[in-house]
Amino acid sequence: MTSRVQSVLNEAEYIVGYKTYIDLIRNFLTHQQVVATGMRQEIDRCREAIRLAGEGHRVAVVSSGDAGVYGMAGIIIECLEQEGLLELPLEIVPGVTAASAAASMLGAPLMHDFAVISLSDLLTPWEVIEKRVRLAAEGDFILAIYNPKSLGRTQHIETVRELLLTYRHPYTPVGLVREALRGEESNVQITNLADFTNYPIDMLTTVIVGNSQTRIVGSYMVTPRGYKL
Amino acid sequence: MTSRVQSVLNEAEYIVGYKTYIDLIRNFLTHQQVVATGMRQEIDRCREAIRLAGEGHRVAVVSSGDAGVYGMAGIIIECLEQEGLLELPLEIVPGVTAASAAASMLGAPLMHDFAVISLSDLLTPWEVIEKRVRLAAEGDFILAIYNPKSLGRTQHIETVRELLLTYRHPYTPVGLVREALRGEESNVQITNLADFTNYPIDMLTTVIVGNSQTRIVGSYMVTPRGYKL
Question: Class of B3-82 per CATH?
Fold first, then answer.
């Protein structure tokens, strides 16, 4: 958590967010009123936050990771637009996105160009996602895959694996990080492209697939930037 | 800066880094010895940090943004490998990478899949970079472009603009953020694909190019995630 996030939370009268994320910051809250809502209620959360802000309150809407990467920042602005309230003061406070958090626990896999792709097809047609995976593979991008799997969506990651195997070596390093940087909850696994779907993967996992240069160095996964040592 | 970075700096005996980045954190330093080196002396910095750590000192090597994205994390591990010192304790502390920092000042451009590409050809052949830009454009990825221009390298960003214009509308929003989140030093500009190279761009600028869905909402640049409001 950045110092700016801490000061924004301290100054807020209301904290609005998905209850799982609110629970992650309970220890930082003192006087604030909490508005916690369930999964997939993003629009309700925005409307409630905007209603409170419209009444003159200081409101903080929380996301996990970086609110600016698949987080709440966009829908807040879209709701403000729809309600004709774009002049309300808004600060978007960036955070450490899951790709960076996961990478830090694996070593240094993101030292070169990378693509961030979510496999969630709730809001995006699967054909678009699949096309992006294929093009990222062709471009030898490192991949940071968000939302790799959920209870109702288990095959996409297998399709991605097969697709990537047509471009990359089966021994290409793959890192799996579950609940990155959440203390004892965190789980880290370094494996390879052929095998990685045999390990537990769920919606709290970030999958980082190396490019053609990525290698295992001791206990680390590293993509060399290209320095001559 | 995250609270973890603050505590690591506090616990360090030595701070090693590029002098421009050291200057950014001078106010946070008290007792630490500083080893500041010039640009492009990454390998020297690593060797010095490893030498000090090998003597038993607590050493912090600093990067700007996230050390795990085009930063010092990878070369440190490679140097440790070369010197046979991979067992030295190492913690990689992630930060807010320039894409996230810049996005937060523009609105919410990174709400969907994006590609992070550096235009620096010091360590990467230009053909590889150009191919990645083309594939990212074809995949309708948002682009976060690092190192878009330097004194000796001014044409690449023009080539990128022309390439992107073959895939995207000239009015595609483009955000330019110089020295993101560095207080009064920061400079933010929202423009479009046709015009953006007419604005000042240098190596401290991050360029964010929208995808086919990105639009200007009031004073913000937003890529809708796809929610139906």
Answer: alpha beta
